[in-house]
Fold this sequence. Notes:
Radius of gyration: 24 Å
Number of helices: 2
Low-confidence stretches: 1-92, 122-128
Number of strands: 23
Shape: globular
Helix content: under 10%
Mean pLDDT: 77
CATH class of the largest domain: Mainly Beta
CATH topology of the largest domain: Methylamine Dehydrogenase, Chain H
Structural class: mainly beta
Strand content: 25-35%
Number of domains: 2
Largest sheet: 3 strands, antiparallel
Strand order of the largest sheet: 3-4-5
CATH superfamily of the largest domain: Regulator of chromosome condensation 1/beta-lactamase-inhibitor protein II
CATH architecture of the largest domain: 7 Propeller
Amino acid sequence: xxxxxxxxxxxxxxxxxxxxxxxxxxxxxxxxxxxxxxxxxxxxxxxxxxxxxxxxxxxxxxxxxxxxxxxxxxxxxxxxxxxxxxxxxxxxxxxxxxxxxxxxxxxxxxxxxxxxxxxxxxxxxxxxxxxxxxxxxxxxxxxxxxxxxxxxxxxxxxxxxxxxxxxxxxxxxxxxxxxxxxxxxxxxxxxxxxxxxxxxxxxxxxxxxxxxxxxxxxxxxxxxxxxxxxxxxxxxxxxxxxxxxxxxxxxxxxxxxxxxxxxxxxxxxxxxxxxxxxxxxxxxxxxxxxxxxxxxxxxxxxxxxxxxxxxxxxxxxxxxxxxxxxxxxxxxxxxxxxxxxxxxxxxxxxxxxxxxxxxxxxxxxxxxxxxxxxxxxxxx
Length: 380
């Protein structure tokens, strides 16, 4: 029995428990010691990362590695004293899309991962309590549709990292454990997994009522954008692919790293269908309908983030300044001047951004409270 225990400790000292207890990309082992503890490797930094396993130790404890972002602690190390080590602590959340502007309401994620939603609750006040996020919700991304909103959670709840609320069928999200990004448009939402798989749920836009169209089976998505009329994704080869009831197909030669598509309102069958993308060389290209002059991209514009509304588009330029073109409401709130931005969102005639001082700014049509976040709330 003594020799068996000695062999076990030696084996674990060389290989650790990571092949059995860890899903992390970092599975480094702790240093084996003749006394004391062995510390596990740090966990993956992905949203579902698991900490590295603790190193084997001839002492009383082997300590698990630190968990990945929004993940869970690593497994305890084996010990000749007979006691497994303590698991590592869960990591802090990695934030994604911390601002999402919808046609009637907006949602933001603050620096403590709390979700705040504001604005009226859909057409004529209908559509459920979308403008009130569930109590205690902790999220790293948000996405707002017509009468619902969804969040990508900092950790799984009931075997899912997606939580939705409000009205319509999209408010009842399926259980999704591997989502790393989320987008919403009209009455449906989609997520993207770390391997590029796209999952969509909710209802299609009129007149194509019924279940929302699935993404192409051979798609491996790197980026994702949704609207009533069409959804688009950047494929693994940087090409842009769109699908849905009436998609506006992008140029065949387009190679992109960011995309945005129209958000419809009231008339999806007859409303504008267009998209814009930031190319792999940082240029901006748009395609489809030209409502409000949105297809006339300012000459020489280089950008790193993009968002589009019904008749206007905005970008975060390479110097982090905000630039917009097309047609926004004449009497709407003014575009922030002299500020740098880190994130951007837009829907219909309203735009919002996270600024470099960790505040939120909204411009365009900000009536009904959709551009008025709670006072004192700070962005991550």
